[in-house]
Protein 1
Amino acid sequence: MLSDAHEAEDAVQEATLNAWRAFPRFREGSNARAWFLTIVANECRRRRRSRWWSLTRQAASAGSEVAAPSGLDVEAIDLRRSLGRLPAEMKLAIVLRYYLDLPFEEVGRVLGVSDKAAKARVHRALARLRVEIPEAGVDA
């Protein structure tokens, strides 16, 4: 969600502290994994909304051009770039489902929707991602 490994690590650390503080409010019998991932997702959203985030991201993109690391597959780079262009909610749905391999029921809990709505969101995000990814091997 943050497109920066160091920023993501900071967000998880902050979310862990927030979870520790909120633990007395955790309902027994609830899914702890979905509860914690919701806290992490909320922290990532909070960071993206902050003024500091927008200033640092603009400065990083205005900085020097960084060449693609050697050895990485071009298709993987295209996928990562396309994923980065998706809206945060769509990116979150795909990350939860395919990167963390969560079932739709848990994706729904993290997103705050039913499992059917989570499935619909994931499929809409995939459809949007398919449009974003450049066609491989297409001759002009």
Note: Residues 136-140 have pLDDT under 50 and may be disordered.
Protein 2
Amino acid sequence: MKILTVDIGTGTQDIFLYDSNLDIENGFKLVLPSPTMMVHRRLKQTLLSRRPILLAGHQMGGGPSAWAIEEYARAGIPVYMTPSAATTLNDELDKVEALGIKIVSDDEVEGLKLKVESLELMDFDFELISKTFNDYGVSLDDLSAIAVAVFDHGNAPAGVSDRQFRFDYLDERIRARNSLSSFIFPSTEIPKIMTRLQAVADSAGNLDCPLLVMDTAPAAVLGANFDPVVAKRERKIIVNVGNFHTLAFRWVKGESKAYSNIIPVKLTWQNSKS
């Protein structure tokens, strides 16, 4: 059995190929630039030519990519984005347009590609990952499953902060099912509000195996419990410290449930520009 796992962060995407025929420590690992950093670098290079840019594709992680797109627009260079790609900057497209970015329909994309630089946004590029493994003689044609984790703050209604919306989502999921596995979704069962998770599924295209997606913070906390030292503790606080987000869960192992009383206790965000 082979399972491809991908954790897509701000600085890197960490890839592990689990193979039941190998000892766990001999599984193949890749640490590559994150998609948002790849977009950031590409735009920084293109900015020097001052050529108009078209950004199509899917919603993806912001941070570096968003900063580079906004810098492009501030420089007075035409920036075109499709609606799905534009949600990388903001779910409210009028706020994207307020940055000086023109929203174009998917029908307009082909005509624009002949006149401008173009770049497709996506968090999960299975074809590129598969090619990388294949170049080293490792095939991904026989995968049993793919699991991808990204940070998704959800599509907050107008006037509701992303942070508060995420808190409410975490609370709702925990109350509905007191288990961190409640944050794992097959690609066909992703809640409509989790638009970045859905974008991962959309960008994956037609796969020959099941795709599971999950929020990175609960995934990290859930994974920490597989550490033999951590697993022995009946009561613990496990903290996922990311580049821009910190999420902690208080974990109490009950008699009837492996995961009882999991409570999100803190979520912070820090803008590295400040």
Note: The longest strand covers residues 260-269.
Protein 3
Amino acid sequence: MPKPLWAPWRLEYVEHADESSGCIFCGADDELLVARGERALVVLNKFPYASGHLMVAPTRHVGEFGELTDEEAAEIHRLASQGIAALAQVYAPQGFNVGWNLGRIAGAGIVDHVHVHVVPRWLGDTNFMPVLADIKVLPEHLLETRRRLAAAWPS
């Protein structure tokens, strides 16, 4: 039986996601931008499940998965693959979660701009802190994570 992945620190973000103004992908903060392609971009998740949690989105504002062009879908998946390579080089995770959360009920915090998540995983990467104290311990600052991944990004 699979073990649950508890992420209570994300509840505040998910509950208030619709209140934020502007789209985080359309106005991608260069501070968290890791890579940019012709049709898609890669940013660090500001509310990560693990250090190095990436999100890959089309540069065009698209709210429905089925509205992606073949070229956009291909580039998103190519950038996700490159993200896995960069994460493997920099952090040596033991596995990855890669996936789309389509719709609020499916866990999407940003419902009007589709994106895929790339989350590095390690054995035992969850601990008692999120469960007992509603705290997620990330061992590295987001800007350092961004610097390291951008430097390791495959050309």
Note: The chain is about 30% helix and 15% strand.
